[in-house]
Structure to design on (298 residues):
């Protein structure tokens, strides 16, 4: 008498359990899905890079502006450090280097805000299409933003560094391992910046107008990321607080690794903690948006 099979069992697929190990059809299907997902996100990153590479003139204008403001900031910092030598543990050269390094981060990390078209898509109703794409909305936009950041780092990040080296003379890491650490910290800083900007953009679903929250976000990021002055200038408990906030993971942490005042491991651990926390909040907010999307005018 032949053995009876479950009526819902497909003979071509193994049952769940020990038989679904390496080499089985189930394992191959999971591996294929992961490869397809990686290919999708790689294509999205390349798309983000190519989309922003279209606007070369705008990127060069932004690089020129960052360089000019970098010279102005550096002049102020030189006067400050000459009046207070050794302030915050930096000498004059380190302070000027910090200035131009953070100027180079403005474009890739969008320290002044923006970089995402999500608020406009929420107002027009296109968010409904975004939520049914074959990939999570947050990861989809993150992949595009990483491609954008790569282009901005090359076109808007390098010119301020070159201007600082030509006008004032800045220090550069000599150890290749530190360069790898700097690159890893910059990438992690972009992820933290994206996660924060994503949450700010999703607030449009409840506020209907993003201008107020965008201005508040820009002020917080400008003051607390290290873009204006090193966060080590803040005294006592206030300094410990601002260096523990997520904005410090955007500019201060990679700048410290560049200057050699912090190890790449500790900076990456700090950035990874905040990146994971903010991305988790973004995933929860996206789930809430799926249940209630408030679209202005749509």
């Amino acid at each position: 008498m032949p053995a009876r099979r479950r009526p819902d069992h497909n003979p071509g697929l193994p049952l769940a359990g020990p038989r679904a190990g390496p080499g089985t059809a189930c394992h191959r299907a999971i591996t294929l899905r992961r490869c397809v997902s990686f290919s999708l996100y790689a294509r999205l990153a390349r798309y983000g890079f190519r989309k922003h590479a279209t606007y070369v003139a705008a990127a060069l204008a932004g690089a020129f502006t960052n360089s000019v403001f970098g010279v102005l900031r550096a002049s102020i910092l030189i006067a400050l450090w000459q009046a207070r030598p050794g302030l915050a543990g930096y000498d004059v050269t380190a302070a000027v280097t910090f200035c131009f390094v953070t100027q180079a981060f403005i474009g890739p990390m969008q320290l002044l805000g923006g970089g995402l078209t999500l608020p406009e898509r929420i107002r027009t109703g296109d968010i409904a299409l975004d939520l049914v794409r074959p990939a999570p909305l947050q990861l989809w936009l993150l992949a595009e933003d990483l491609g954008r950041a790569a282009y901005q780092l090359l076109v808007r990040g390098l010119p301020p560094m070159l201007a600082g080296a030509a006008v004032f003379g800045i220090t550069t890491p000599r150890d290749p391992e530190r360069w790898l650490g700097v690159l890893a910290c910059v990438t992690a800083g972009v992820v933290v910046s994206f996660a924060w900007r994503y949450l700010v953009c999703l607030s449009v679903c409840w506020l209907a107008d993003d201008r107020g929250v965008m201005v508040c976000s820009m002020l917080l990021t400008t003051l607390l990321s290290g873009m204006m002055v090193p966060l080590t200038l803040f005294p006592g408990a206030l300094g410990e607080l601002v260096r523990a906030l997520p904005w410090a993971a955007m500019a201060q942490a990679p700048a410290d690794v560049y200057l050699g005042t912090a190890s790449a491991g500790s900076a990456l651990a700090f950035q990874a903690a905040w990146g994971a926390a903010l991305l988790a909040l973004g995933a929860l907010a996206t789930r809430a948006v799926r249940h209630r999307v408030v679209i202005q005018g749509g």
